[in-house]
Amino acid sequence: MRILLVTNDRLGRQRAGPAIRCVELAKVLAREHEVTVASGVPGDIEIPGIKVILNGLANPAALRAAARQTDVAITQGLVLHVFPFLRRFCRYLVVDLYDPYLFEHLAQRGRSFAIWRYLRQWHLLNQQLRHGDFFLCANERQWDYWLGCLCALGRLTPEEHERDPSFRRLLSVVPFGIEPQPPRHDRAVVKGVMPGIAKDDILLVWAGGIWQWFDPLTIIKAMGQVRDRANIKLLFLGTRHPNPDIPEMPILVKSRRLAEELGLLGRSVFFREGWVPFDERQNFLLEADIGVSAHTNTIETRLAFRTRVLDYIWAGLPMILTEGDYFADLVAREHVGKTVSAGDTKGWKEAIVSLASSHAERQAMKSYLSALRERFHWDKVSEPLAGYCRHPYHSRGVSGFQIGFSRFLTPAYRRLLHLRRRKPELAASSEKDSRKAKFMDNGYRHGETEAGER
Fold it and tell me: What is the CATH number of domain 202-375?
């Protein structure tokens, strides 16, 4: 099979979650198929054994030519809107929904024309849900959400139910993964290198970016309450998205300002400028003692799959997380970290002091993490996608005509019931009326009485 994976994220040494996922899935699929990876924006990446197409927006001809040769296309985000020819040229279409970005969009408050921006995102998302043959999500919470969306758009049809009553052949869970090789420390990058962070300090690291749906402010406030523990330091690793089209978010400005107002900036709270190259992130993670991630109590939290937490698992890093998302539940259940209620500054302070003070507890968590790591290896988590690519198939929901016609079905159904009540002989008088009666009954009553009442 010829597989084409397309992202609108930057493919380069510095890459964020969507690009990482695109590249790592491509590596797994390339073991069995001819694989091409494409991005709509400029980049600087080479992947052995995989063809790479960069800057597709500026030069769509190469991507268009690749699409004409493609059996299975795998898309993310708004790729189908940017490159609509993928749907026409590629034989099968996989839509990766691992990032419920509509809720991330809602988290960015105060933007002009908010309702129109939302409606655009909502419309484009629904278009993808109508056109895909196979869909991916990151966890079971997302599976419930996306299955509801597909149902509302008429994708859970009798034909699909007949093929698979679980609907796992339409929508499957393919989490984000981690490399099977354990990380190795190549060089010192933080402790004893960055001014203000000593070799024997207890280092808390916030991997990834500071986005609007996160809550770095509560952790910074907690750091203000442990200022008497001068050896506890907090480092934010990502302050500028590798895609230059994504601007700095207001929450980053607020975080810097708060750290400065509390007298913590450059003393116990640090912001590393830029973005850590993907192949160097292990050096930062392995020098840290605790991984942290905090968020507010929103629907985005409920459905999120925090890829930064996978880096903590990969590096064997005990962690402190805000309650409410998938990984917070996992961390509590597997005893590999501590969880704190959303916005609970005191709880964060206590968790930081407790875990920073107990080397034995951190070591115990590390031993549990080594066993947990294997669950998320890319070749294991990507198996549903690999299976689909081996034997792809089409899936279709109700058509536009059927959607338009459906508005007439309820009054027509009631009318036929009325006729049947008045002339019961119609139900069996002729082959034509027999078909009409079958339409009326169809073996189901849907909670209605003979008179059409509920």
Answer: 3.40.50.2000
